């Protein structure tokens, strides 16, 4: 729960900075027109540089769907339920928002008891278990977990020290960085879309010159190479 709240706090601080520095480029303060970050939008990627893994809510939902092929899971809907004040009710097999009427067991947890938000229950806790069982070298829990997650390890990999072994396990679990790539594809403007804004803000030369016009248009036929260096 504390980790989830810290993530919420970090996102809120980043969004405050976006609002602050967007004042000059947006005429109003409407959040709808600002590029604010929200995990449910798919523009937030959770990652660990030390262990080389990353995921978005959408890519994590896809992992769950792969691990449970017998269920007709709508990954897009599931991903949206993985952030915010959503709780999973096992009795009814439904996701319930805290503003809705919760069952007695869920409502106790929503107020700080045993029930956890979906991000904690479906993402943080399984991730913590992978770390704990691997670093703790607990074979009785480790191997059943591998089987459940569909992780296959070679004999020589099982002899690795805990941290290298953890890196291998996490790379098998998360696979390729599909979530990160999808986030870039869906939320970062292409060069043709973003060049106008970038050139208008950073180029100090004559914006009406043929060179600037070609840069703005991202014209590959330009015979002059322009490089933007930042520090």
Automatic annotation (TrEMBL):
InterPro entries: P-loop_NTPase. One of its GO terms (molecular function) is U5 snRNA binding. GO terms for cellular component: cytosol; U2-type catalytic step 2 spliceosome; U4/U6 x U5 tri-snRNP complex. It comes from the Eukaryota. One of its GO terms (biological process) is mRNA splicing, via spliceosome. PANTHER family: 116 KDA U5 SMALL NUCLEAR RIBONUCLEOPROTEIN COMPONENT, TRANSLATION ELONGATION FACTOR-RELATED. This is Uncharacterized protein. It comes from Elphidium margaritaceum.
């Amino acid at each position: 729960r504390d980790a989830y709240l810290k993530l919420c706090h970090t996102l809120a601080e980043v969004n405050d900075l976006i609002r602050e520095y967007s004042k000059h480029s947006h005429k109003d303060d409407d959040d709808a027109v600002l590029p604010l970050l929200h995990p449910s939008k798919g523009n937030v990627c959770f990652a660990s540089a030390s262990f080389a893994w990353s995921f978005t809510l959408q890519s994590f939902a896809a992992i769950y769907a792969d691990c449970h092929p017998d269920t007709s899971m709508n990954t897009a809907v599931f991903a949206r339920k993985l952030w915010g004040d959503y709780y999973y009710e096992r009795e009814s097999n439904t996701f319930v928002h805290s503003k809705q009427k919760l069952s007695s067991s869920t409502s106790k947890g929503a107020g700080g008891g045993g029930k956890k938000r979906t991000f904690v229950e479906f993402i943080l806790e399984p991730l913590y278990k992978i770390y704990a069982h691997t670093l703790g070298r607990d074979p009785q829990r480790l191997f059943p977990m591998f089987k459940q997650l569909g992780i296959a390890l070679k004999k020589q990999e099982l002899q690795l020290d805990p941290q290298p072994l953890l890196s291998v396990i996490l790379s098998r679990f998360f696979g390729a960085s599909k979530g990160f790539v999808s986030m870039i594809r869906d939320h970062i403007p292409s060069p043709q879309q973003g060049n106008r804004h970038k050139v208008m803000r950073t180029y100090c030369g004559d914006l009406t010159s043929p060179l600037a016009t070609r840069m703005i248009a991202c014209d590959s036929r330009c015979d002059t190479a322009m490089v933007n260096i930042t520090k």
